[in-house]
Specification:
Layout: H1 3-52, E1 59-65, H2 67-83, E2 86-92, H3 99-104, E3 110-115, H4 116-126, E4 130-138, E5 142-144, E6 159-163, H5 166-178, E7 183-184, E8 198-200, E9 206-210, H6 215-218, E10 224-227, H7 229-234, E11 244-245, E12 253-259, H8 266-275, H9 278-288, E13 293-294
Parallel strand pairs: 1-2, 1-3, 6-9, 6-10
Antiparallel strand pairs: 3-12, 4-12, 4-13, 5-10, 5-11, 7-8
Length: about 300
């Protein structure tokens, strides 16, 4: 091979190597750019996925309640509300009469212990601006005795204990009237009455007006007493032992009560929904029998 041809061949090989190097550099750059673009494209998706997996923010809802059955029913729905991001705090006070003041003073968000006639009897006097959001159950009030076995054994001059708060006193007297033991005067439309409103008392019954909570332990000193079912349950008295009781059509359904305006809060709506499900109805019927009747 001549010297001239050798020089040309070397020059061609050099050019080819330069072209190959340039192509390799472009491919690497393209690969790098593609990688960066793919990474950039993935970031929004990754962010969305991370956001979607964040836990639901929990809200605490404080509800004041009577011990039985109210607090027990609330305990039953507590896990369901937890799943919906609501931490239900149940506040049981020794004095149920403080549950409305506690609601008024914003110590609690709602209460569950009273019926509408009771609320109506105190709200104007106390200046409560409350709203009822749902009915949950009725506790049929009944006549109990540690001495008598039937209504027919109620003798002339018997001493009967009745609650001394206005709405439940009226309720007790109406129950006695339904049983033919007394007659009240006409025109009592405000769910309030006392023994002074009795116009016929053929057995000359004597009445002891007492705080509702004291009636179960006062039974040995009375011929009988009309007692709210929640107090009967707390006192471990068999509700089946009532000589007679209200029927299920009682207007005294126990309700959820909130401050006016709070009925639109999402957590209050979820509370009401959780309390009025078929599962709660079954729980009430199986746990309490005749003592507590679902009102929904």
């Amino acid at each position: 091979m001549s010297k001239k041809r050798l020089v040309v061949l070397v020059a061609l090989l050099f050019v080819v190597s330069l072209v190959a190097a340039a192509c390799g550099s472009n491919n690497n750059g393209s690969s790098s750019n593609n990688s960066e673009q793919a990474s950039a494209n993935q970031n929004p998706s990754d962010s969305t996925s991370s956001s979607a997996s964040e836990p639901v923010k929990e809200v605490t809802l404080k509800v004041g309640a009577a011990a039985v059955p109210h607090a027990e029913i609330l305990e039953f729905i507590k896990p369901k509300l937890k799943e919906e991001g609501i931490n239900l705090e149940i506040k049981v006070l020794d004095d149920e009469g403080q549950l409305n003041p506690a609601l008024q003073e914003k110590q609690i968000d709602a209460n569950y212990f009273q019926h509408v006639p009771y609320l109506d009897s105190v709200k104007d006097e106390k200046g409560y601006n409350f709203v009822v959001t749902t009915k949950v159950h009725v506790e049929p009030i009944g006549f109990y005795s540690s001495k008598l076995k039937s209504k027919d054994e109620i003798k002339e001059g018997a001493t009967i204990g009745i609650p001394n708060n206005p709405s439940n006193e009226y309720r007790a007297l109406v129950l006695l009237q339904q049983q033919g033991l007394i007659k009240l005067k006409d025109g009592l439309t405000t769910y309030e009455a006392t023994p002074k409103d009795i116009i016929d008392n053929p057995k000359k019954l004597k009445f002891v007006e007492a705080d509702s909570a004291t009636l179960p332990r006062s039974l040995p000193d009375l011929d009988g007493a009309i007692i709210n079912t929640n107090l009967v349950l707390e006192a471990k008295i068999d509700p089946q032992s009532a000589l007679f009781r209200e029927d299920a059509n009682s207007p005294y359904a126990n309700v959820i009560v909130v401050r006016s305006g709070d009925e639109n809060r999402d957590e209050i709506k979820k509370l009401d929904e959780a309390l009025t499900t078929p599962e709660v109805k079954k729980f009430i019927e199986e746990k309490y029998g005749v003592a507590v009747v679902p009102a929904f």
